[in-house]
Amino acid sequence: MKNKNNDSSVLIENHKPWKKKPTTLLLFLSLLTISLLLLRLSQDKIILITTTTTTTGTDHHRRQKTSGDDTCLGRYIYIHTLPSRFNLEILKDCKSITRQKDKISMCKYLDNSGFGPLIGGEDSDYSPSWYATNQFMLEVIFHEKMKRYECLTRNSSLASAIYVPYYAGLDFRRHLRRRNVAARDAAGKELVKWLKKQPQWKDMSGRDHFLVTGRISRDFRRNFDNKSAWGTNFMLLPESLNLTFLTIERSLTSHNEFAIPYPTYFHPTSTSEILRWQDKIRLTNRTILFTFAGAQRPIRNQNGLVRTQVIKQCKSSSNACRFLDCDVKANSCDDPISLMKLFESSVFCLQPPGDSLTRRSVFDSILAGCIPVFFNQGSAYKQYTWHIPKNSREYSVYIPVKELRTGGKNKIEEILRGIPNERVVGMRENVIRLIPKIVYSKPNRNKPDGEILEDAFDVAVKGVVKGIEGIRRKEFKTE
Asked: What is the average per-residue pLDDT within 238-263?
């Protein structure tokens, strides 16, 4: 047997030259077949997608490999499907969100994707994209728009950011007057407990998660040892410190909060509708030098003192200022069209702090092409850094509180009259240019190829993704 095996080895060795030819031929035919198959796939524009099913902290370069360009690369967002008690049940319980002093039930404001009742129409000077939008509806508006975001993914490992659709502000409104702080704090604690159990949390301990609140950040920053103070402690929970919060007013000392515009009354369906509105207010005849629409505030703090001074100076001006006193019910401060027409007739709109540093009126005045006048850096300049220019002189006037108090009873009018007309025209044009970035367009907005105008939602999402990518890179470098 041994000899036969040796003979077989010799025989195979002697015939190797003859075996090479068919092997080479088969290899050639295989390569040709693969080449033809790849060509066929290319012609049919079939995209082969390779994705990973797991993710780690170092996997921050998540890519979707395709034969073409992936326009969503680096923009994918995953939406958590939360238990209904964190959003849908809050909306169903909308009667509990309504307060006694509310003129309209909060249930009505939930209409039309959170935009509220329609106010524009064929017989109106305003297009059918105008709504009586409540300033606290941002959570619902943002969620509805996010549902139709063009770069959603069901694969969380591809996501650049993870959206948590918890309606924290509306939930807080249900428990606004409860003395039992445990009841006020309960939902926030339940939410972070739920998030920590999800596989998406493990990657970055929540640092790639973000959520939107339709109230100012102070409402969620009650100290743990203060059981009688206002608000909840949601933003101060250890897990919350890892989240990114988008809110209508941020705490100026917080590292994980970013302010985004209050919702206005205008929710356009297309870029062309925005452009038409901009053209309209460029031609508006402005007969009032400056305007203030608001109510008196208690003078126990600086915000109240500033308001008092602003109202006094407006009343004492030489018919140059219009004061719309919102403490008087007949003045229709809650009528969006009346308010917009007043702002459209004014060159400058005064924006003193009120209950807090910021005001929804800032964005209503910008929408009307009225130049905002600020008295505190925290009312806009240090808030909406994603949505407004760094050079505040380009679009606004700033009057320090000290100058307001010591400059005489007509200091505001003196300052505004002293601004050259050419500069006023330039400032107004810059204000009008801001409009696309401070409105929330309809969720089904028509976005044709090549559209360059971004709305407030687009700018906010871009800011979130960029910020989280910065955190991810920093973590990657330290590993």
From this structure: 97
Strands (E) located in 38-100: 77-79
As a whole-number percent, the residues of the chain with pLDDT over 90 amount to 65
**Angstrom distance (rounded) from CA 213 to CA 249:** 9
Reference 150, options 445, 466, 469; nearest CA is 445
Confidence band, pLDDT 50/70/90 cuts, at residue 292: very high
Helices 138-147 & 456-478, crossing angle to 10 degrees? 80
Q: Where do the H-state alpha helices sit in 221-291?
A: 271-282
Residue 82 in contact with residue 165, Cβ under 8 Å?
A: yes
Tens-place pLDDT, residues 268-277: 999 999 999 9
How deeply is 467 buried, as exposed, middle or buried, from its count of CB atoms within 10 A (0-12, 13-18, 19+)?
middle
> Is 0.70 surpassed by the pTM of this model?
yes
**What's residue 405's pLDDT?**
83
d(CA 261, CA 246): 10
When computed from its CA atoms, the radius of gyration of the chain, rounded to whole angstroms, is: 30
pLDDT tops 70 at residue 255: yes
- Token pair of 289, please? 């030098």
Strand partners, 372: 349
Rounded to the nearest 10°, the torsion over CA 315, 316, 318, 322 is -10
Structure tokens at 461: 């999402």
Integer Cα distance of 26 and 452 in angstroms: 54
CB 55 within 8 A of CB 203: yes
Residue for token pair 């008092």: 308
